[in-house]
Amino acid sequence: MIDVTPPKSAHSRWHKIRAWIHTHPQRTYAIVGFCVIVLAFIAAAVVYVFAVPANKPIHISVTKKPVPKTIPPVVYYSPLTGVKVPDEATTKLPVTGIMIENSPDARPQSGLKQAGIVYEAIAEGGITRFLALYQEAKPQLIGPVRSLRMYYLDWAAGYQASITHFGGSAASLTEVGNGNYRNLDLMAAGGQYYWRATDRYAPHNVYTTFAKLDALNTKKGYATSTFTPWPRQDGKPSATPNATSIDIHISGPLYDSHYAYDATTNTYLRNVDGKPSTDREDGQIAPTVVVAMKVDMSTVLQDGYREDIGTTGSGQATIFQDGIATNATWHKNGRMDPLTFTDAAGKEISLDRGQTWVVAVPNSNGSISWQ
What CATH number labels 77-370? Predict the structure, then answer.
């Protein structure tokens, strides 16, 4: 039997679809929504495949407020004094030691207040003399410059210092001239490196400047100094000070010294012979640290009678800083080795930044007292 039913027209099929949609609206919405999701997924996949390189993660950029980076400034400290200096080049400057007189005819001296470290010891007949060490500070008037003794040379050697002096004892001149030291003998160097002041009489009138000493250091090739610095710390006045008045008996009234602690500046105002110990240009001398070290001293026959002080080995010391007295032991293993200070546990003691004044007090008749 042949089916002669006419085929359904496209118009008829669309009419039935519209009727179904009208009859089933919720199902229609679900089907349309599903189709939209599928199409969106396909579109995203196409973008990913063609727009993103293989194996490269997708990064979502989130705009953030930039945080400025703060780089702490580099701070440089003087190896000699521990104080802040402007740049690294200053830390590399050579150390220069200068013998400065301390007889009453030499007072007030020039350049002492700017010294980084000062060693004070008896030179002869109870008269003390100073070895003043400089690195970053360069006073333009220094003196009176006097002669060298062996034990000052021993202390200077620990800093690889250029040793400035005007002559010296025969033994010290032989030693300093043997090629193992940086010898700045002004008497041998010539008059272009010093002059004699007219307001004082010889031998208390030899003066120099760092302009001259720098030129002499450069001429001799002394460009820097290599040494082991003392450990340094930021000082702070003690809330319970136990040493605000210090007396050091080294030989007699003209040379015995007194130190009055000033908590405002955290320094020790130096007095000698009952009067302020002053720098002619810069006022009263006021070190941050005072060290009194007990030493063996004897008189020997050596181109005349000379004092001889033991600088190597160890001995007792008292360190005054921040208004506090601390018992210590000094050590120096050999002539070229540094001088160090340790506490009862054997730990090296840190010293406050600033000028350090070291007094060599004879074991035989010297004394140290404080309150």
Answer: 3.50.90.10
